[in-house]
Amino acid sequence: MKKRSTFDISDEMLAAFLDGNVDSQESQTILKAYAEDAKIREILNIAYEVDAELGHQYSACEILPMTALAASCGEENYCCLECEKYILNKQGIEFDERKLLDDAINNGWQKEDGTALHNIGRHLEGKGLVVKRQYRRSIDDIIKALENREHIIAAVDGGELLGDKVAEAIEDIMIGEIPDHTVVVLACDKKRNIVKIFDPNSPNKEDSYTIDQFVDAWNDSKNYLVTVTQKDNELYIPEPIDLSDVELSSDLNELREAIAENAHNVWAKGRQELGWTYGKRRDDEKKQTPCMVPYSKLPDSEKKFDRDMAMQTLKLVQKLGYDIVKRKSSKPKKKTEETFQCNTCGHSVAKFQVYCNECGRPTEIDWSLHKN
Questions:
Q1: φ, ψ for residue 134 (rounded to 5)?
Q2: DSSP 157-202
């Protein structure tokens, strides 16, 4: 494994960094190397220039760091868990600390390298609290939530919150935004220019920062907030992620129609299994609906619902930083050579499949049992 410069950075680590597949500690190592080592800086700059030439530049839309790992809390990367425990204690809700950790690991919320932002608050949900996750919030949103006596977990760049200046040296390219830590916001006072937080990394009961310093660190998560309350009877106001800056290619627009039709078929199959049949008018008592027809027979008003759902799903995938790649050939694999059974439901799956088409579970096939 070839190492680069005086830093403990291999070619493999650099490649993983460029693909966005490194953990928080590795990212910090590379960022430090970029700021201090001309050779590393040259390699990364060239890599980004080449990607731009090949059309692999960042998406025109803003990418939300849904899968970024909050991991800046000692060697065990438990900052999210510590924030949730803090809120449970404040709410007077009893919990078994060992069970919380076991649940986090068994459900895949807590990984070795931290907790993905979209899994913050899962323990609180399990205790009956109302949890909302939102991007692009503001200081005013924080103040309003605090006035409503909501608890707040914010995702931040831990190093930047503490005044780490490494990112300043690389602000011209998009590799310095690392929302790798979570804190509980306790108070926010615009007049005094203070934000008070509970920081799992700090020995203090609370720490204070200027609003600007907090916001600078918070910006790296696209201002991601998790708000928590006991209120379950308040008016629900849906606030889906803004996808207005996402444009789909012609291929994905075609895929939209296929997803819409399949979504209708999935819905119809589920309804049939519950005893629903076709009827000229919807009748909940008789379990009849005029929509129990093939997709091609649906009126445009009904097709629009499925198309909008498909369109929003495809846009969301891109917004969250994923790419949908079309294979050059759709020729199916030979069943005798490349098709096996899902361990969960027994449905046939191809070797390249990660999830089963039938049950949706990971295939988890032990390929050592299928040697050529």
A1: -145, 145
A2: -HHHHTT--GGGGGTTSS------EEEEEEEEETTTTEEEEE-TT-
Q: Could you identify the residue written with the tokens 């680590």?
A: 13
Task: Report d(CA 97, CA 105) in Å as an integer.
Answer: 13
- φ, ψ at 298 (rounded to 5°): -70, 145
Distance separating alpha carbons of residues 80 and 85, to the nearest angstrom: 9
156: CB partners within 8 A, 6+ apart: 179, 181, 182, 183, 214, 217, 218, 220, 221
Give the residues across from 182 on adjacent strands. Answer: 155
> By the 8 A CB rule, do 36 and 147 touch?
no
Measuring CA to CA, which residue among 277, 295, 299 is closest to residue 286? 277
Domains of the chain: 3-53 (no CATH), 69-229 (3.90.70.30), 250-319 (1.10.490.160), 335-369 (no CATH)
Count of Cβ atoms closer than 10 Å to residue 134 Cβ = 14
Say what angle helices 24-36 and 38-53 make with each other, to 10 degrees: 110
Q: Are 17 and 45 in contact (CB under 8 A)?
A: no
Could you give the CA distance from residue 17 to residue 252 in angstroms, rounded to a whole number?
A: 27
> Judging by DSSP bridges, how do beta strands 277-278 and 288-289 pair with one another?
parallel
| pLDDT averaged per 10 residues in sequence order, the chain, 372 residues | 56 70 64 73 68 48 78 70 94 92 89 86 92 93 94 90 54 55 95 95 92 93 92 74 83 84 94 94 93 92 91 89 70 52 72 57 56 47
